[in-house]
Amino acid sequence: MKHVNIKIFGDVQGVFFRYSSLLKAKEFNIKGFVRNEPDGTVYIEVEGEEENLDKFTQWCRSGPQSATVKKVEEAEGELKNFESFITL
């Protein structure tokens, strides 16, 4: 198990990024949360198997079709043992 914090920059709010993240998290069996930030970014904390997290973070680099991702920052974090993936 691994924990990753992800911050996504670009045109990523109001384009179904959070909902699409929820669907991808379910597809890859990932737990955590996603939220919009006041600065216009999307912030995600996720936990899961490394291979699944790699697939999820790769998806974050493009996001849903309606999004324009300019930059993605990733950092490992402490495990929080999330029980599900939620949108905040």
TrEMBL record:
Catalytic reaction equation(s): an acyl phosphate + H2O = a carboxylate + phosphate + H(+)
Q: What are the protein's GO molecular function terms?
A: acylphosphatase activity
Q: Which residues form the active site?
A: 18, 36
Annotated TM spans: none
Tell me which EC number(s) this protein carries: 3.6.1.7
Q: Which superkingdom, per the lineage?
A: Bacteria
Q: Could you tell me which residue ranges the Acylphosphatase-like domain spans?
A: 3-88
Q: Which UniProt keywords apply?
A: Hydrolase
Q: Which family does it belong to?
A: Belongs to the acylphosphatase family.
Recorded protein name is Acylphosphatase
- UniProt organism field: candidate division WWE3 bacterium RIFCSPLOWO2_01_FULL_41_18
Q: What is the lineage of its organism?
A: Bacteria, Katanobacteria
